[in-house]
Amino acid sequence: MESWQNSLEIVDWAKTVGNSRFLMNNYSNDKIGLKRYNLVKFISFNFPLREKDRKFLKTFPFEEAWVNRKILLTVALVIVVLIFGCQRYKNYFTPVEVDLSRYSNIHIQWVNFAEKNWRIHGYNKIDDWKRDIAYLNRSFQENLENYWLSGKDVTFSKDKDSTNYPKDGLLVAFDDVYIDYDHYYLYLSIKFVDLSSNEMLMEIKRKGYFGNSYGFIGYLTCSLDNVSQRITWVIMQKKKRNFLG
Q1: Would 171 be classed as within a structural domain?
Q2: Which 3 state secondary structure label does DSSP give 241?
């Protein structure tokens, strides 16, 4: 009697949950049919069911309920990712103690990715590594000039050994460059130096800039775009949308 009462409670629960019940008999998916068969077999083995209860379990939309559950889990996961993503970039826009907006002339130093590390990153020839380093720097420079620091007079170093800086203005220099390809981060520190007095006005200590893209060059391009976003905020105190990173 007790087992019979338990089986009735299970069926009543299933009927309550199945508000949007619909017949699944027309479904021809073998996997769905197998899952349904195993489920009904399991319940029948543990609880004696009446014939009408068996018919109900055979038509109850368990798959629909599971799909709805998966949709909720997916939405929750997306929300968590967005929250942690915002946490990742929140420090980009912290208050800046030094006003650098007065500088109209800005010189951007070459980002030195260390040519000696070409084998570490899977290159067969050092010339290929140098070519990609040059491409990354040119792309970085063009984006700074045309988008991020538009309205400023921006000049750039031609290579890592270039020291031909203007006599006045603001120098943006990079140090402690490290590529973390396993986690898609580019680590570096950023220094802001007054060229006329050679005084370092501000330093952003070494931190990681995430590259939201695939491939070695793709992720570094996006990481450098996040570096540009940080530089723009410090110099111009303006938030600009990052289309890549």
Answers
A1: yes
A2: coil
Give bridge partners of residue 207 from the DSSP assignment: 188
Residue stretches of the chain with pLDDT short of 70? 1-72, 75, 78-92, 243-245
Give the list of residues 6+ apart from residue 174 with CB closer than 8 angstroms, or none.
109, 111, 112, 188, 189, 190, 191
Q: Is residue 18 part of a domain?
A: yes
Q: Are strands 105-108 and 170-180 parallel, antiparallel or unpaired?
A: parallel
Tell me, yes or no, whether 72 and 126 share the same domain: no
CB count within 10 Å of CB 240 equals: 14
Q: For position 169, which CATH number holds?
A: 3.30.160
Strands, E, within the chain: which ranges? 105-108, 153-156, 170-180, 185-194, 199-210
- Asked if 104 and 56 sit in the same domain, the reply is no
| Structural domain boundaries, residue 122 | 97-236
What φ, ψ does residue 170 adopt, rounded to 5°? Answer: -115, 130
Tell me the whole-structure pTM to 2 decimals. 0.64
Task: Render the burial of 178-216: b for 16+ CB within 10 Å, e for the rest.
Answer: ebeeeebbbebebbbbebeeeeebeebeebbbbbebeeb
Q: Note the pLDDT tens digit of each residue in 37-94.
A: 555 555 555 555 555 555 555 565 555 555 566 666 776 776 655 545 444 554 667 7
What are 30's two structure tokens? 């073998």
How far is Cα of residue 203 from the mean position of the Cα atoms in its chain?
A: 26
